[in-house]
Structures are given as structure tokens and as C-alpha cells.
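Sequence in, structure out.
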Amino acid sequence: MRHLASALLLAALAFGGTGCRAAADNPDPAVSDPKGRRTATGAWFGDSVDLRGSARGERLRMRVKGWVDPAVPVRTGAEPEDGTRWVGAEVELVNVGGRAYDLAGGALHAFDGTGTRYRPVRTGTLTTGSPLAWGSLAAGEQKTGWLVFAVPEKARIVRVLGTVGEATAGWRLQHPPSR
């Protein structure tokens, strides 16, 4: 019996020293889109994710490649309302399909730790770059730009969710753990 207890204690210590983390430190990679559907994609900051469109040959590669907090506009006089700050996500879109991809229905939202969703706001050009221009993307074409979100001063943004047509992808705003 003493050997069994020692073996269990040794196993517990061994697993405690590995990469196992508490649930709060390792969030569920699946997130919900604005319509409440669960997404299968829980990408890390900087990962590219391919989204398939509804028509044959539509495929879009999307990546959240930059994040600024606070986001600072170039134009003076433009600033967030009292009690809020601007944060910005740099997004890269690449049409890797065989036909034009219409981004008109595309959206990107930021989520804080409580699950509150924030929509992009118009701010103009940031000190970090130009805003993302939604529209049609020809086969092989790439667009990169910034989206800005007005969030409460104390909010901690933890995820960004992108939707194009019926396809949805989510990114955690942290770098992946050492692999």
C-alpha cells in the first residue's frame, strides 16, 4: 500500500512539473461567433487561418498579425470617448482561392475576458498604419490594414473573431506557449 501511495505521489509531482496548466491559463480554443455558433478555430496570435466561402473556389486566408493598445490616430482631435480607449488589430487577408472573394459581409470583433463583444469604429489612419479596406479581393490579391475598437478603459481584450460569409475564425491575443 505504501508503494502505491508513493507511486501516486510521484506521478502527481511528475505531471505537475510538465506543461499541464489550469483551465484559466489554457482557455478553450473554440469561441462563439456573433450568431452563437461555435467555431472550430482557436488560433494563436499571428497564426493564419483559411476560411472557405460558400461558392466553389472561394478561399480566404486571414491572420491577425499585429495588436496595439492604445491605438493612436494620426489626425489630431480624433480620440475615444471618455472612459474608453482605442485598441487596434492589424489584419492580413489573402485570397488563396481560384476566384474573386467579396468581403462586403466581413466583420471582425474583439472580445474581453467577460465575453463582451466590441465592433470596429472608424478612426482614420493610425500611427501604426492605414485602416483595413473591406471590398472585393481578386484571386491571389492581399490586403493588410488596421481595425480599431473602442473598449472600456479597464477592459482586457483576449480574443478577436473574424467572420467572412458563413466562415468564422477566432484568435487568442497571446503568443502560443512554447511547443
